[in-house]
Amino acid sequence: MPQLFSTRKISSPPLPATLQLIPEQAPHKWIAGKLLTRREIPLLEEELTALVTGGQVQKVLSIEQQRSGYVCRRCGNNKNYLFAAMPHLACQKECVYCRNCIMMGRVLECEPLYLGSPHYPWPAIAEPCAWEGELTDGQTKAADEIVATISKGDSELLVYAVCGAGKTEMLFPGIATALKYGQRVCIATPRTDVVRELAPRLKQAFPLVSIQALYGDSDDKLGDAQLLLSTTHQLYRFAYAFDVMIIDEIDAFPYHNDTSLQFASKRAAKRDAAFVYLTATPRAKEKKRIKRKQLPAVFIAKRFHGYPLPVPRLKLSPFLRKKLVNRSLPKFILQLIRSHQLGGRQLLLFTSTIEYAHLVTEILKPMYPEITSVHAEDPDREEKVRAFRNQAYRILVTTTILERGVTFPSVDVYVLDAGHVVFDEAALVQIAGRAGRSHEDPTGDVFFFHIGKTNAMLDAQEAIIKMNRLGQQS
Amino acid sequence: MRCLICVEEIVPKVGWGQFLLPQKKINLCEVCSARLARIDLAGCPKCGRVDAEGVCYDCVRWEHSVQYAGCLEKNVSVYMYNEFAREVVARWKYRGDFILIEAFAGALQTTYHQHFRDVGADVVAIPLSEQRFRERGFNQSDAIIAQLGFDAVDFFKRKDSEKQSKRGRRERMGADNPFVLVGEPRKPVLLVDDIYTTGMTVRHLASLLKMNGCPVVYSLTLFR
Fold first, then answer.
1. Which of A153, A394, B62, B167 has the most CB atoms within 10 Å of its CB?
2. Is B134 on the interface with A (CB under 8 A)?
3. Prediction pTM value
4. ipTM of predicted complex
């Protein structure tokens, strides 16, 4: 069985040369560009064998033993503590499996992976984009760079745009360019909520294009669209599939510190693919690469509506934690919420933990019945966010899951216990960026309630002020 | 050392105890081991249910049924089946992260020694259907028995393959016994399984054993 590629360094690996073109009308065209386990392939044994013999699918080694230890061919994991063995009765021996990507289904060393040929004639669509809005100067600048990167191929571009700059819209010309060439495009993001939020907007902008959204419990399971929206986790199931890979929220957890997700997103793209990264808060790693001119970047300091970003105000609230333990909130925060609720705006209230989110909701519920809380494990998460957007709630108490990628037209943002470790600089900048996102209501109040200023708060505040200054100059 | 569940590095505590006593192998971090709730005082002496005073209602009902009265001496469980346990079991059993069984080993052995060391029972596994076994690659009850250091005694075969957890309590109670006895039990038997939910599975097996001359049947499950 052939090895898929070398892992010495995580880079775009060569594609096995023997793979054949999958005909346009083929019933199994969904296998194009996929890397799947046997269980994930709904074909009979003889059908699959026929594909392998025909050169449209290739069997590859799933777990490879190198001198330094094991390497998982699906997720790139090479940490020895993330491998384990189990007595496998089918092969009468201890079989090694990868623990890192087990959430996507277990891969045992005795089971091969199946690599579907990425060669498939995607249609070249002459006029794919139906969006009729206009881009601002800043957006146009970024859009032009994106188009250039995509036309060139085999290159990278970081789009560093402030929260509310209109990142999605500035992607449209680039995506349209790729589709005109008959290319396959993936927009990946670490956050499920972002995938859900983007899907309807893209379907509206590209009505003639096959579009699917892939995430943990999405309905589109096949993943055979020309334009795919996906969480970065789902990319474990793709290899060499995309001509254009756009990674939104590149600095977000868990992508930014998970080498295996970065590996998967690289492997999912063709060797000569164009990579476009989007972020409002690049990490030190990216900043360093920009500075050394290793990573081309474009910077947009202005929001699409031209108004500055709301600058967060820091409010000392020394008894906050104590009050919460006694199931109450400090008086001045309650007063602030009361005066806020007299106006027409909605309120996003961020808490550091799920427990606090529940607690704060309980405290406020008697006074403000139109309140709910949401967190990552909440089964009604999607529904509640949608309901809040439709103004069914006045207050939404949330953990950091809503720190980025979501747009509510008219909200103020309060952060309780902003000194907590989960609120790092990037998180706070993103959270502040939820306010004042619409043309009609471009301002908003952002309060960080804390029991002592942290560097993260000060850095976030400073970063926002700096971007506003740059935005004014441009 | 890394925690088996969350894979975070475990920082060992340093004290005179660590210095002077032989070291136990630690494979769980403090956070994860605190989230797995041990059952130290069972409320119901029959089934190990925690939130009961005396024999619980379910067990009373079992003892009134003609078929299953008196077939199971008692069930003992190691942990409460809380939200966290549910997640870990899902990863272990359904995702197939086999090695997680080692996270339960210490507590499992302790519980076994407290309750069953002196009963002289054959340790018997719950058979899986052929199809389920192929999918999963291992039998969870065999895996637990291996952690106790025994060889499982095979007394049973399974007839059909429908998943128990897909049925409600009533359906489970009314269902035909899916197992067939293939051996001749002469000694006490200890049935080992991962989860005691309604107690139907162990009672199916226990009733077969009792009918065929087994003196007494116990069960040991990881979760309750």
1. B62
2. yes
3. 0.86
4. 0.87
A102 and B95 within 8 Å at the Cβ level: the answer is yes
d(CA A177, CA A427): 33
Type of residue found at A173: P
What is the rounded distance in angstroms from the CA atom of residue A190 to the CA atom of residue A400?
13
Query: What is the C-alpha separation between A283 and A277, in angstroms, rounded?
Result: 12
Q: Which of A82, A86, A103 sits opposite B98 (nearest CB)?
A: A86
How many other CB atoms are found less than 10 A from the CB of residue A377? 10
At B130 the pLDDT is 85
Residue A162's φ and ψ, nearest 5 degrees, are: -60, 160
As a whole number of angstroms, the distance between CA B29 and CA B165 comes to 30
pLDDT tens-digit profile of A171-180? 999 999 999 9
Residues of chain B positioned with their CB less than 8 A from the CB of A87: 138
- Report how far apart, in Å, the C-alpha atoms of A33 and of each of A16, A114, A117, A424, B26 are: 12, 10, 6, 37, 43
From B180, B188, B185, select the one nearest B220 (Cα to Cα): B188
d(CA A292, CA A290): 5
Low-confidence ranges of chain A (pLDDT < 70): 1-16, 474
Contact A415, A447 (CB under 8 A): yes
